[in-house]
Each structure stands twice: as structure tokens, then as C-alpha cells.
Write a structure and sequence with these properties.
alpha/beta, seven-stranded mixed beta sheet, two-stranded antiparallel sheet, 9 helices, globular
Length: 304
């Protein structure tokens, strides 16, 4: 699923999951409208009634490629940034979602970053930040006690699962694809356990001041000691729940008509939906501080 190439400039207080959902919905609608004139003569896309859009088969505005379905179809030849790589600061945040195994995330990270690089027509990004499911900081700078194991069904993970996932991030850095790497919502205790297990240390730790109001003193002191820059964010940890994906792709009033129920007889995909990851990217023109491109990609698996 793609929220690109839409550029969304929501208000600062807007939660990232709201921005993501709006981006996907608007992109699905625009893709349907782009196809509709070919079916309806010379009718302008803005005049096409939403009921007519429901009659358009999802196969007309999506694209099958190998084992993937791009929703909507993406033409990377029509995208890309206008200037040279040196003119941009490109920041990417990769959300690993709940109910996925740590060992799967090497593939997930490669898939997600490759889509961003194709979209922007760039060979690298400046900063890659990783968000793990169920991790958040409280006012004292600590997180909830994580469950142990590889955590296919849990909401939080232990340090070993996180460091296994981090190997994919380290590889992207070593290849020169991600020039800097960082974490999200790591308190001082978690950082102290995590850092000794890494080969490439994070240079950034994002924290949500909405959850803890002020930077915890213990985290501020430890980050300074370890030369880790603290940045703020307003993202949700579980940015794309399975129920939201089903609503986006389903046959409801705001759905795209791609997923249908198990007892439905119409055209569409059937099965349980399992979100895998979401990636958010922002490309800022350095000398002007202007966002030239901002968007999302998301991956979900359909299981019988």
C-alpha cells in the first residue's frame, strides 16, 4: 500500500496514524478517479459519483508484481526528487508492527527502504529511525516491562529480539544506504542494555513529549554521555492496526473495495490481514527548509 506521492502537511498536533490513514484513503480515491474517465467517456474525474467508483474492479487500479499487489499501482518512473542528492535531508522512519517475528525484519527493512529509494530516485537517506512495537517512555524515562522471546503475538519485545531486528539497520548503514541510524522511545535503562549489543550505535533517539511531557533527566544525562541526539515525535507506536487496514481495503463506505468478507460472492481478496510494517519518508530541501516530498508505504500480508 502506498501513500506516495501525496504530500501531506497536517497540523503539528495531528497524530501520524491519522495522517497515514488520510494519505492512503486519498491515494486510493485518486487512483480510482484516474481510471474512471476511461470507463465513463469524457466525464471529469471530480464529477464522478462515488457510487460509480464502487463498480471499478480493484484489478484495474492496482498492480500485481511477483507475489505482491501494489495498492494502488505505482509507476516509479513518474516520481523522484528534482535536484541532486546533496541538496536534500532525507529522513525515514520504519515502524516494525506487532505480531511479526524479529527474524522477518531483515527482509522487511530491505523491502521498505528499497521502495523509498525507488520513489525518490535517490541512492541513500540521511537518517533511518526504527520504531519497535509496544515501546514507549513514561515520565520517569522508563518503559513497560517487555515480554520475552521473539514475540509473534506480544505488544512489546525483549532486547534480544530488538538487537536481532537491528542487524538489518546496521547492514543498511554499512552499505552506505542509511548514513545515520536511530531509535524511537528508548529510555535510559533500555539504551544501557541495548547499546553493548550493537555494532553500529544509534546517533538519535526519538521521544514523544506527549507521553512524558518533559525529557526525563536520566535519559537526558545518558544520551549526552553517549553522544545520542534526542529528537521529539508525535507518532503512534502501533501506527497501522489490522482493523484499520481491513477498513481501508474493505467494502465499507470508506473502503477501497479490495478485501471482501469470507462469505461474499463479489470480486476481491479474502483472508485475514496482517500488517507487517509502515515506512514514512520526508525529503527537505536543505538551503530552503522546504518539504519537497513526503509520504508513506505500508506492507500487509493476507493469510487464508
Amino acid at each position: 500500500m502506498s501513500g506516495a506521492p501525496s504530500i501531506i502537511r497536517g497540523p503539528p498536533s495531528e497524530k501520524s496514524n491519522v495522517e497515514l490513514v488520510n494519505s492512503l484513503q486519498s491515494n486510493f480515491l485518486a487512483s480510482k478517479q484516474a481510471f474512471a474517465p476511461a470507463m465513463n467517456g469524457d466525464t471529469p474525474s471530480h464529477a464522478i459519483h462515488k457510487n460509480n467508483l464502487r463498480t471499478i474492479s480493484y484489478t484495474e487500479w492496482t498492480k500485481c508484481q511477483n507475489d505482491f499487489i501494489f495498492i494502488p499501482s505505482v509507476d516509479f518512473t513518474q516520481t523522484g526528487l528534482a535536484e541532486e542528492r546533496s541538496q536534500y535531508d532525507i529522513t525515514v522512519k520504519l515502524f516494525f508492527l506487532p505480531n511479526t517475528f524479529a527474524y522477518e525484519r531483515h527482509k522487511h527493512a530491505q523491502e521498505a527502504i528499497n521502495l523509498v529509494l525507488q520513489e525518490l530516485h535517490m541512492p541513500s537517506i540521511d537518517l533511518l529511525i526504527v520504531s519497535f512495537p509496544g515501546v514507549s517512555i513514561d515520565a520517569d524515562g522508563e518503559c513497560e516491562d517487555p515480554v520475552t522471546g521473539d514475540v509473534p503475538n506480544g505488544e512489546s519485545e525483549d532486547i534480544d529480539a530488538m538487537t536481532t531486528s537491528w542487524r538489518a539497520v546496521e547492514e543498511l548503514h554499512e552499505k552506505g544506504i542509511a548514513l545515520q541510524v536511530g531509535l524511537s522511545e528508548f529510555g535510559s535503562d533500555r539504551l544501557q542494555k541495548f547499546l553493548p549489543k550493537t555494532k553500529v550505535r544509534p546517533s538519535v533517539d526519538q521521544i514523544s513529549l506527549k507521553d512524558c511531557c518533559v525529557v526525563p533527566k536520566s535519559l537526558a544525562a545518558y544520551a549526552k554521555q553517549e553522544s545520542i541526539e534526542l529528537l521529539t515525535h508525535n507518532d503512534c507506536t502501533n501506527i497501522l492496526p489490522s482493523g484499520t487496514v481491513r477498513e481501508l481495503l474493505g467494502t465499507g463506505e470508506k473502503g477501497a473495495g479490495v478485501l471482501i468478507g469470507p462469505d461474499s460472492q463479489g470480486e476481491g481478496l479474502k483472508g485475514d490481514i496482517k500488517p507487517q510494517w509502515v515506512i514514512k519518508y520526508t525529503a527537505v530541501v536543505r538551503d530552503r527548509g522546504v518539504i519537497e516530498n513526503k509520504g508513506y508505504f505500508a506492507m500487509a500480508q493476507i493469510q487464508d
